[in-house]
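Suppose a colleague, Dr. K., hands you the sequence of a protein chain of 442 amino acids and asks what its three-dimensional shape might be. Before reaching for any lab equipment, you can write down a predicted structure in token form. Begin with the sequence itself:
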Amino acid sequence: MTQQSSSIAYLTALFPAVSHTFILREIEALDDLGLDIRPVSVRRAGPEQLIGPAEKEAARRTFHIIETAKRPREAAAALWQAMRHPRPFVRAVSLAWRMRPPGVKALVFQGIYLAEAMVLARYLRRTGCGQIHTHFANSSATVGVLAARLANIGFSFTLHGPSDLFEAKYWRLDTKIAEARFVACISHFARSQAMLHADPDQWHKLRIVHCGVVPELYDMPVPAEPKAGLHLVFVGRLAPVKGLRILLDALARAREARPDMRLTIIGDGPDRTELERLAAPMGAAVSFAGALSQADVAARLAAADALVLPSFAEGVPVVLMEAMASGKPVIATRVAGVSELVEDGVSGYLVPPGDVETLTARLLDLADNPDLRVKMGQAGREKVVRDFDIQHEAAWLARLFRGEAGEALRLDHSSGSVSVEDPASDPFAARQLGLTTLGEQT
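The predicted structure, expressed as tokens, is then:
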């Protein structure tokens, strides 16, 4: 008989979501390792988010908090169960009060988050979850940490940025770090920002776990003879933070010297109408493809020459990993943890955010050097395979869930080594997740 560890609830505000395919990949990779992952979403994803079979299957197996809370019998049962366990309930109410942001409106929302946490806690108890993990440190993490208190189980979260860090005080990042068993920081930059808000006694919880991709999905042959011209692609949400107006300005300038340069914009969002208006003078040189599935994005990257991401703020964008896994050079802005992925002049170019002149020059550099594009693409793929393979990252995350990570900051993928302590040294992990490792025979 094979003994498995407790189930792990994976909570996000909206799952699955087109812009968060990396969460779906992470869950799939953890499933492959034998962990029992239970996706949870505060809201139900609309049909516009279910753009592929993987997303539809993920939606089918996801527990939806608000949808459940709207059923009177479910809401009443959640409240009754919370009242039946007075000590966890009082601790959760106390935590909600301590974490509240200033203002009456924020207090009302804090009450809503507590109510959602009660519904979630009932689900956690019913399904035997021994841990809850959330992506992002905002409202969904508030619901998650309160539900963990109510259900008396472990809590952890993945810290991304930029929004997690812009409003760290509002979302009480310090308290959430103190409550967590561990925090999976997606970059050294994110970890350093968490250290600014956390008590130094909590720094040992801050581990590096990269978001990742499946390199094999982007394993396309490199053309023997690079073609002339430059076909650029952008992938992301069409919102002001992505800097697309800067890109369109730079593209128009670059096309004065290289009129064969063109751009495909993949994604959707509130800025689309205005961006289409700004791009109209360039005619067919700029096309809008809308939101696409993972497979379709991979095909578009394979057909392109380079990816450009001129964002004003980012974490470590997964789309850069996808482009680099496709063997394509990238141009990105030097913000947050991007330089931990892209090496300037090696796998692509890093430019100052908002700098049209430098971005224009780098577009022309790639257009004028087809052989350099190939060389950069090869370097980028090697980087992603070595440091951003989702299978490696999921294996490291699984060790953290099982309390087997010791004091290591992150896993050394080149050797597969990590200092491992006896799980019994973490009494909470031993109690909640079991001392038996996944797949161990009993």
